[in-house]
């Protein structure tokens, strides 16, 4: 039986095409609202927070603007005011109904920020209504609890946001993303080998850096949500500062990288270090060089680094769905989770 999660993974190329068709013509609107701002703050939780990590790297590396991840509790629990004049606050929520995110975005506006919402909840959602500008993704209804198509379309919306902020990238690269995702769904690489490698372990370290860091965090979250693994998502720079001690024969590493870019050599070196210590290193992306240093590998997208995360997450999604079934779990309905999470 095909799970809802697997069906929604397969819907991503169409969802990405629809989202890019809807949002690329709105780059000028982003430019207008961004003209009166200097820096950004992203407001999100969970999967949306992982998407925001991609947004942060994208904006800082290519648009030259300082960006940060907000702590919503400053607004909702501590109820403090911060001078946000000159800031662009970007709220991300797939449903657009997460009360904490809606409240924090409204707080940011009250503190002087210009506000943008990124949501799949539509123009009528509370988050879209709270924002000066809403960039609504076109993923369609998502029924499985683990987010797939709503996550990748969030990344597409963040790429459009970056274009509006003046990112020095080639906008035409976005047109290649849906086809690249389609290719990965059809051929994810050594999926069976990686599933079997993770089926007998209790934990895994998932690591990437730079643009791929968001993918490492999101893949780790998916493995925790649906497979109940103790999955630790880390930048490999942080991993090398101590946590690498947990990587051993019983705790493999899942290493994520685009097929190009400044973080690829470090990821390859990490794979060699892990396998040299007798542990398994499974690659996601990174081209032939990373695959050659790994125990087994999943394919990555043939895309420039700045858009690669939209494809890099797909093998991780397929791995999560297949591993959950291999372990006898239902990936559509992980225990203790709901589609919309409200923070107390």
TrEMBL record:
<protein>
    <submittedName>
        <fullName>Glucosamine--fructose-6-phosphate aminotransferase (Isomerizing)</fullName>
        <ecNumber>2.6.1.16</ecNumber>
    </submittedName>
</protein>
<keyword id="KW-0677">Repeat</keyword>
<dbReference type="GO" id="GO:1901135">
    <property type="term" value="P:carbohydrate derivative metabolic process"/>
</dbReference>
<feature type="domain" description="SIS">
    <location>
        <begin position="194"/>
        <end position="334"/>
    </location>
</feature>
<dbReference type="GO" id="GO:0097367">
    <property type="term" value="F:carbohydrate derivative binding"/>
</dbReference>
<dbReference type="InterPro" id="IPR035490">
    <property type="entry name" value="GlmS/FrlB_SIS"/>
</dbReference>
<keyword id="KW-0032">Aminotransferase</keyword>
<dbReference type="GO" id="GO:0004360">
    <property type="term" value="F:glutamine-fructose-6-phosphate transaminase (isomerizing) activity"/>
</dbReference>
<dbReference type="InterPro" id="IPR001347">
    <property type="entry name" value="SIS_dom"/>
</dbReference>
<dbReference type="Pfam" id="PF01380">
    <property type="entry name" value="SIS"/>
</dbReference>
<dbReference type="InterPro" id="IPR046348">
    <property type="entry name" value="SIS_dom_sf"/>
</dbReference>
<dbReference type="InterPro" id="IPR035466">
    <property type="entry name" value="GlmS/AgaS_SIS"/>
</dbReference>
<keyword id="KW-0808">Transferase</keyword>
<feature type="domain" description="SIS">
    <location>
        <begin position="29"/>
        <end position="171"/>
    </location>
</feature>
